[in-house]
Amino acid sequence: MDHYVITVARGFGSGGKEVASRLAAELGISCYENRILTLASQLSGLDEDLFNEVNEKIRGKKFSSLLRGLPKSFKPNPVDTDFVSDKRLFEFQKQIILNLAQSESCVIVGKCADWILKDCPHVISIYMEAPRAFCVERVMNKMKVNEETAHTSIAKTDQYRAAYYEHYTGGNHWTNPVNYDLTINSQRVGIDNCVRLIKEYLKIRFPGFLWKGTEQEI
């Protein structure tokens, strides 16, 4: 094994995106979330022949460089619309995730990545959640909104994510712990220790991997 992938699913407000970003930074690898969706959205609007041509050609380093060229998003991204299926978009997004997993070490946030990569031996999947009060406080602080708006944002976003996951996985449940290697309560563990815990788990799952520094140091 010359690379590994970490997928992170998360309840809105649990800090999962922050943990994913910090984890990637400490490991010296890329973190992918909205850049995947941005690229898939752009390419899904092309002419069918051109769409297929691009889909066949995006591979390896060229593919990774293209994704890295897209802007990152660090702000909370609540969803206030109902889930609507777009299978064509999802299939290309799925191909992007599979290509990433084949080409480099990285962290992938959301997008059913745990399910898409469930048969890949070099992947670990994390689910992060926290009590509602903890999530509400985080959303209020991050988004600068009142408590009512925070509650609404969490409820709608989590409902959207659950519907999205269930639809594209053929009825599986987003919060099912069997889908993941680790399910972490970020309130109890704390954001810093979430990062540390996942790094320790990496060493347990992939003991033979040559980590940065020495085999015993990540």
- The largest sheet has its strands arranged as 2-3-1-4-5
CATH topology: Rossmann fold
The helix content is 40-55%
Structural class: alpha/beta
Please tally the β strands and state the result.
5
For the record, the CATH architecture stands as 3-Layer(aba) Sandwich
Proportion of beta-strand residues: 5-15%
Segments where pLDDT lies below 50 for 5+ residues?
46-60
- Nearest-angstrom radius of gyration? 17 Å
General shape: globular
Main sheet?
Answer: 5 strands, parallel
Query: In oligomeric terms, what are we looking at?
Result: single chain
Tally of individual domains: 1
Question: End-to-end distance, in Å?
Answer: 16 Å
What CATH first level would be assigned?
Answer: Alpha Beta
Would you list the SSEs in sequence order as H and E?
A: EHEHHHHEHEHHEHH
Mean pLDDT score: 81
Short characterization:
This protein has 218 residues and is α/β, with parallel strands linked by helices. Helix content is 53%, strand content 11%. The chain has one domain (5-203): Rossmann fold.
